[in-house]
Amino acid sequence: MAQVSLKSALKAELPPNTVLEGKRHLTENEKEILIKNRNISSDSSWENVFVPEEEGAFNASQIVQSEFSGWVVLGKIRAATLKYHDLELDTGIYHSMLSNVVLGDDCVVKNVSYLVNYRIGNRVMLFNIQEMSCTKHSKFGNGILKEGESEDIRIWIGVGNENGNRSVLPFETMIPADAFLWSRYREDKLLMQRFVELTESGNDKKNNTYGIVSDDAVIKNCTLIKDAKIGSNAYIKGAFKLKNITVLSSPEEPSQIGEGVELVNGIMGFGSRVFYQAVAVRFVIGRNCQLKYGARLLNSVLGDNSTVSCCELLNNLIFPFHEQHHNSSFLIASTLQGQSNIASAATIGSNHNSRSPDGEMIAGRGFWPGLCCDFKYDSKFASFVLVAKGSYKNELNITYPFSLVAASPEDGTVHIIPGYWFLYNMFAIERNRFKFASRDKRIVKVQHIETDPFAPDTMQEALCALDRIIELTYRYLILDEDSCKKMTVYNAEPDVISEYRTKALSVSADEGLSVAKDFLHHAQYSQFLLSDDRCQKKYGAVIYKPLQGYRAYRRVLKYFAADALITWCSFNGKESLAEEDLSSLEEIPLFTQWVNAGGQIIPEQKVQELFTLIKENQINSWKEVHAFYDECQKLYIDYKARYALYIFERLYSRPLREFTSEIFSDITRDVAFVSFEMLESSISSREKDYTDFFRSITFRNKEEVEAVLGTLSENSFLRELREATDDFNTNLEKLFKKLR
């Protein structure tokens, strides 16, 4: 058998020319120093090691008891010390093995037992690592394929449903909007195929991959790092297993991985932190997220600014600002649309709700289930639904936003108070506005996030809730007398109820809806219940305080519309709406159907426009998709303002140009009521911390209360809220001045 000469073998294994610029072979003196320091090479002539040409840039004495095989290209090794927190090490290579490695300038490689096929940036610290290697076909957590690979090894993330039929392919720049659109519009097979093609865009499929550790990263005390791409300034300490992953990190948004962590087949976003035995497999973690204290994240996409600890999440698509902290929490096969908070002992999403593991749940923004809640799948919740502690044994379809839901073990129904937050918890709404904005620590904001509870997605739900209350009220009015009495809690206006019952019974169903709406506007003090059979399978729901909820929804719709128009005026340098402004607004496209796409509120029609562009090959990369999102966001103020006109016209059943001074006064009065209510509710809620007897029983005196809780006058949130309320009310007074 013919023998291959050493020179031929070395020639076949030469590193790429791109990394050899400015490099040279070792001098004889440098070789002697390396050998003296107990270093060895697979090439006895040391021709496989390349060092900087620059004079004084390479000090061979800073390489000790290390092994080189394949080829190794070294950067500058000079007398210097790198320090990160309490770790302080001299630059150089010590007690390590390197094969097919490119090392940047002024790095530390110490006690790295096996370092193979990596490109290391400048000023990187690698310390106490058992194995750090990269295969030539690595994808770094992306759902792409290399040359010769079959589809069955492609990495999919099975979000939203355990059966895998909502699966998405992870990619480095994925945001929740991408995952949402991919997972929900499954009936469009061409679109699904195009999404795969967008993900593969730019993939040359060549099996020439190498691991990457970018500048100023620190990796220490780790067991296994395989097929990893690690961004600059990342800090990794004590990780157990990192395999086929991308860790996005930058000087402005450094990411961190801590002790005992296992990350496999996924992508970790900029500025995120994973600590304390957390495990993630088949995942995408967004920007500024935390995963800690033994949390398990499997087959899931976690949106920006989220915190998950102690619990388990399987097959989930979670939009930004998700909070889940407690050890007994359990969340599975769900799409949660942001600003959610999962309480302790929640058992959401058991595998055993149906004959097969294909049940799922979708919840709008602000989903807050109480302690020990469990639900039967399939279930759906409107935005900002607060669910009281309990076991919900039948499928739920809660269509009333900002509502309170409670189980009723006595009769099997669920009890719902529509608009509960507006009636009893305005403080929480206003606090949400401030807290989410202040918690957004992202430097680069690729995923646009709507943090205002009053936005087109919630307002379209409020409009639907109004229609439903009107419909159910009509049913109430045409009940037989005994049934009507049973559903009437307190009849303070017998003549009014009698009058409208007579009207409703004497007209057609279509006309009856107008009668019911008129009744809701004229009844003042009556208290009655409504029955909604669509809210829960089998037993339905009882709607409490529908009259108050109806009025609260109307006031808040007016508040949103006024706020949108004030924002539009401010953006266009105006303080009041004039007739010509109405003409300008009417030229803006009217969108009445909205989609919460990963946290960004986009008109449904624009989403369909995006799909058309993708399917017609006019958009061919995810970067171009994100640019489309950006364009939608630029026009968001205009779109909301046009929607605001639509809401006013729908609430008053006439064109805005026909509004009278009385109508404008009615709008201003209701909007000011909401504005003041949010301020007063916030103040009174905080005052209870100082005046409530039971709130004070753990303190010895008033001084201790103030030392622990601070003073009411020093509360920064309330100060900001007062100023914002004053500004809003001032602008409100000016808004319709020219139209009256």
What does this structure look like?
The structure is a single chain. The chain is α/β, with parallel strands linked by helices and 740 residues long. The protein contains 18 helices and 41 strands. The strands form five sheets. It has a 29-stranded mixed sheet that branches. Strands 30-32-34-35-39-38 form a six-stranded mixed sheet. It has a two-stranded antiparallel ribbon with strand order 6-7. Helix 7 packs antiparallel against helix 11, helix 9 (494-505) runs antiparallel to helix 10 and helix 11 (546-571) crosses helix 18 (716-735). The longest helix is centred in the last third of the chain and has 31 residues, at 661-691. The radius of gyration is 31 Å and the shape is elongated. The relative contact order is 0.06.
Secondary structure: number of strands: 41
Low-pLDDT stretches are 1-12
The structural class is alpha/beta
Instruction: Determine Rg (CA atoms, Å).
Output: 31 Å
Largest sheet: 29 strands, mixed
First CA to last CA: what distance?
A: 100 Å
Shape: elongated
- Strand percent estimate: 15-25%
Mean pLDDT: 93
Count of helical stretches: 18
The percent range for helix content is 25-40%
